[in-house]
Every structure is written in C-alpha cells, then in structure tokens.
Amino acid sequence: MKGLIPLFIGLFGTFTFSWVGLTVIPNVQIGALNPQSDEEGTDIYPVPKSGMAQRGRSVYTANGCFYCHTQQLRPDYAAADLERVRDAGISPRAKWGERRSAPRDYVFGAPVLLGEERMGPDLANIGKAAPGQEQEPAAAPGASPPAASPAAQQSPPPNAAPQKSPGGGASAPAAANLSPSPSGKPNPNGIPPAYSEAWHHRHLYSPRSMSRDNLDSTMPAYRFLYEKRRISGERSAEALQLTGADAPPAGWEVVPTYDAKCLVAYLMAQDQSHPLKEAKNVAGAAPAPAQSPAAGAPSPGAPAAAPAAQQPPKK
Amino acid sequence: MTPAADIPLKQPAISATAGDVEQYERALIDASTRVPVLMFYASAMVWLLLATLLAVIVSFTTHSPDWFSDVSFLTWGRLRPVLMNVMVYGWASMVGMGTAIWLMARLCRTTLRHPLLIVAGTWFWNIGVAIGVTAILMGYSTGYQWLEFPPYVAVILLIAYALIISWAVLMFRFRRGEQIYITQWYLLGAFLWFPWLYAAAQVMLFIVPVQGVMQAAVGWWYANNLLFLWLGAIALGTAYYMIPKVIGRPVYSYHLATIGFWTYVLFSSWTGMQRGVDGPFPAWMITASIAATILTIIPVATVGLNHHMTMQGYFPVMRYSPTLRFTVFGAMSYTVFSVIGILISLRSTARYLHFTEATFAYSQIGLYAFFTMIMFGSMYYIVPRLVGREWRYATLIKLHFWASAYGIGLMSLMLVAGGIVQGTSQNDASLSFIESASSVLPYLRGDTIAALLLTVSHFIFAFHFGLMLFGLGRTSTVPTFLNPVEAEGSETHL
After folding, report:
1. DSSP conformational letter for A122
2. CATH fold of B22-177, please?
3. What's the pTM value of the predicted model, to 2 decimals?
C-alpha cells in the first residue's frame, strides 16, 4: 500500500462508521426515552429508585452480582424466559416475568446491569416475586407435604433456639423428599417465605442452606455483608434465622449491615411487571402481577405462551 | 543501562546475506528499543502471573463458592473482574505494546527516540492498572465489563498511553522506504483506534452518560472493539511479520492482505451487539452485529488463506522454531475464534448458548488462544535480539507450548460443551433453574484443570524469561530450536 493519507482516511473512516452506527445513531433512537404515563399523568412507569435501593445497586455492582445474574427477559419467540417459574416458593410459583424487557424499563438505571450470563436466575422481576400481603394466608397446604404446615413458612419466633435445629434439619429434608415435585416446597427448616426480605438475607448469608435442591447453587456467600454480634438485651428483630452449621453460638446473633439492607431493598425494587405499550404480555393476558394465580396452574411443562407468530417484535 | 553499542547482538541467520551496514543498523534499532520493550515484557509477565493465580482461585470458587466468603475482596464477584482487567490491561495491552513498538522500529528502519519517556509511560500504565485493580477489590467497580476501572484510572492510562505511543507513531515520520508493510497497517490502526475507543467509552459512560440500555450497548461496542481493533489488530500484524520472517519467504499475496485488512476493520468493528441478542434493544442493532459477525468470515478466510499459502511447504519448520509454532497456533486460533463467534451469535444457536459459559469461552479463545499465543511467539523471537542471548532450554519452550495449547484447548472445550449443556437445560422451562447450574458444574471442574495447566505453562515461561532477563541465556549465534535440526539446509530458514 502506498501513501499514508489513504491509509489514515481508511482507518478513521471505518472506525467512525462503527462508532456512529453502533452508538451514536442508537442513542438518537433510544437514548432519550421518557417514562410512560397514562392520560391523566398518574400511572407513571418507571420511576427512579429510592435512596436505599440506589445504594443497593452499587452494592450489587461492587460485588459483581451481574456477572451471574441477568436483568433482562427475552421475548417468548426467542427463548423460554417467559415460561420459567422461580425455583423457590409455594405453588403457584412466581414466573420470571409476564413480558419481555424493553429499553424503557431501564431509563433510570445507572449503571444498567443487563448481565451476560446466567449462572443464577434472572432478577429483572425478583422484587415482584416476593409474597404479597394477601398471599401469605393463602398458602394452601394442599400440595404441600404434611410436614410443611403453613405456620412453618412464617418466621419462627425470634427466640427459637438455633441449637435445637440440627435435629429438625435432618428430618425436614426427608419430608421434603417425599414430595413429588422436589423443588420449592415450603421448607419447614425455618426458611422465611420465598423471596421475602428475610429470605433474601438468609440466602445472601448462606445460599446453600435454603433447600435440599439448592446444594448445587454456585452463589458465593456474602457473609461480609453481615455482622455477628453478641446479643445485648433483646434479640434484634432483624437477626437472621439460621440453622445448622450457619447458626451463631448461643447468645450471639447475625444481623445485616446497612449495605446488606440496601442490597435487599434493591432486589425488592426489581420489578418490570408494569405493562408497557411496546412490550406485550405473553398470551395477550391482561396485565397481571407476576405471581397472580391468573397465570393458571404453573405446570411448567405446558407453557402458557402464545405462538411466536402472534407476538410482534418490540416496536 | 548498558550503552547501546555494547550489546552483544547475535547475527540473525535470515540476513546472513545482508551487508554489514544493515546488520549494524539493526543492532542500533534493537538497542534503542531494548529498555522500553523489556520493560513492557517484564511488567506484562508480572501481570500474567498474577492473572494466572487469580484464574485458579476464580475457577475454583466458580464451583466451590464457599471459599473465602468472609473476605469481601476475595469473593468471586470481585476477583473475576480483577482477573479480566489484569488480563486485558496488565498482560495483553502491555505485551502487545512492547511487541508493537519493536515491530514498528524494525519496519520503519529507524531507531526509537526518547525510550526513557516510554519507560516512564510503562510505569504510569502499571500504576494505573494497580490502582484500578485495588479499586475493584475495594468495591468501586463501575459495573461495565472490561471497563470496571474507575474513570480516574482511565485518565492515568490515557496519559501513559500518550507517553508511549506518540513515539511509536513518530517513528513513522522518520521511516525509511516508501512501502508500508502489512504489519504497519495493523499496528498504526491499533495505535489510533485504542485511545479513541477508550476515550469514547469513558465519555459516553461516565462524563456524559448515555441513558439506560445505551450504556450496555456502548460497553459491548467497546469490549468487542477492544478485542478486535486493539488486541486482535496487534496480533494479526505480528503474525504477518513473524511467519514470513521465520520461514524467510515473502507474504503470499499483498492483494489478499489488503482485502483481509479492510474487511477485518469494517466488519469486526461492527460486532458486539450480538451479546444482547433478543435483549431490550432495537432489533436492527442486534441484527447488524450478527450480520457483521457472519461477514467476518471474509477476513478470516483471506488472512487464513494468505498465511497458509505463505507457509505452504514450510510447515515442517514448526518442528524447530518456537516462534513459528506459537504464531501459527495463534493464527489458526483466529479462525477458530471467529467461527465460534459466528456459531454462537446466530439467533438459532443463541437461543441455547446465550447467557451461558460459551460466551465466556469465546472471549477466552480470542484473548488467549489467538492473541496471547501470538504474543508468546513474538517474545520468543524478540527477547533474544534484545538481550543478546538465546533461550536456554528447548525443553522448557516445548513444555510451555504444550501446557498452553492443551490448557486453552481444554478450557475452550469445557466452556463450550458446558455452555451447550447449560443453555439446553436453561431453555427447557420444565426443568428447575438450578438444574442448569448443576449441569455445568462438571465442566467447570474441567475448566479448573485447564487453569492449572495454564499455571504450569506460565510459571515455566516466566522462569525462562527471567533467565533471559538476567543474562543467563545461552551465548550462541544459533537460535534455540525445539528439536535438533536434522535436515541439511533448513537452518537457513530458522
């Protein structure tokens, strides 16, 4: 090749082409989206996260949660994301989501943590998976093994001595194993209701203690976000309910630090269930809360998704 | 430091016919690059050893997550970004700049001016990476892959880069000869693209942050372009120099090289958005990147064909020359890298491979099997010319090669196979999610074995490099061959 000028023009030209094409033009197209609101301007979505959840986002970022957890759901014609139900919880278990993610879901995110790998489940709607107020009493024991009474799902009284639980821990999985559907049964092992704040705290502290099925979880324990301290006077209401090897010695308790509370606040605020004009819900269902029983019996083998052809790509 | 004239330089066999003047000129050029290039290599080696140890810990904690869970800065979520950043900015960028500067000086046939400013630049760069790593460990990661260093580190790196590369580009001004060789196209491109790329990403993410998902788009555009237009361009340029040089034969076709170069730049710079396939983006962005990824088969085919035709009849030389063996392995991995890239970005396969270990395998193959192996090859060529000694033990070179080759081969295989298994179970909604994580565990254990192999390989190489650095190499006029040369006459090509 002769001449430096054509070479330089080529080097700059090709690179500019890519830069403009993949970042500048898309930024014109989707870089200045507004939240969606209805005609009265009342039902606004999305809204910025609260202070604690904002700080929780930086805890989430600092500890690299986004390397294993995505926060995006693909449309039903592309993947099984919208057919999936969460592993834990009582029947009917929460779905991952009712609709695909859209650019508008992320307008207040900084950084936006879409994620590129799923060693852990998607968290786009993890806050929505938390048990609603009206749902907890409805924890019908119908599908549950007898050992799992609804009462066991509630947090045990704070005074429950952790030392006696190894015995309980040995029998409980045996009961759980009897169940035809092994995962996500209400665990009588002092596990809080699935995806509640207390559940998240325990899961962060000891990810493999949540159920027998969870032993293969590769999630690191985030024990440094928790403080083990001597109980002075009353046991703290925030103290984690721990069993077995995780349990602190008598007279000690494990409480979340402020960072841990922020992280859980962030997780609880993860919710993309609000309908968006540009992203239809699967099967054209009315916008329903993610864990609504309206989604039908969550027999996962029979996906409730409509044929792909009916779902236009996001427009 | 030793004055330039005192450096005992071996007479390269390839230029045995060249005149004394040319020999002397080369000796001067090599002497001018000696301190900065060795500085780059030594720093890169330290970062590589650190990355190796981190890789072992990260690999173990991927399947045994309870290690170190009490210590915030030893958890997987912090060590993993440190590992990737040390690999990219500590090892890959530094070794790449070292090789690129040496190649530039040789090809411009001019001495490197102000080598001490470049040495200062390497110190700045090292300090920048060290600060960035500390920041990630302390929990100040920015949350964008390969851009986890806080923005102030980017300022340090860009200043260091300006100190380093201005002189490399300036050599162009003093170059002799009209012809600009293929390697120089790639290197000049890499020198100009990196600062633009890095600065553009910093501005769009931190100074004037773009909104919402555009951040992810900018991050992916940056990461892929860094892999292709910075590291990949340096690696391809190096291969275009080393292969003809070692076998003593001109490049097969300049026309093919031209086509290969411009299609490479044009198409690979448009890849990246396939990492968000079916994500919350306008579909055209994803489709454009997938199309560009498929089109990268054109540069792959032309570059591969060109190298192959150059090597035609000279493949047995790989039996003897360490440089050629590493370089050809890397050049072949470029083909593998691109083909895997195409296979995992097609929408039909992305359904099963998106969000799995296979995507990680892709960047590992690019970063290690392609880039790092070519850099090892260039170090085997360049270091003896800088220190005036030959590599001491052929056995160590062979061990290094096979441990690296088997290590990265096993790692890629495990991650791709694991990714397929993982993705298939993820896409089957009747299985609980944990089963997809469980199914990939055996493959992650295989990945740990691969990481241990690479550890062996890197420590062997570091030891050997250390011997060279401290002047303990062989004093000889004949390069170190991997195997004793049997055939009469083949020496002239080595």
Report:
1. -
2. Four Helix Bundle (Hemerythrin (Met), subunit A) (1.20.120)
3. 0.85
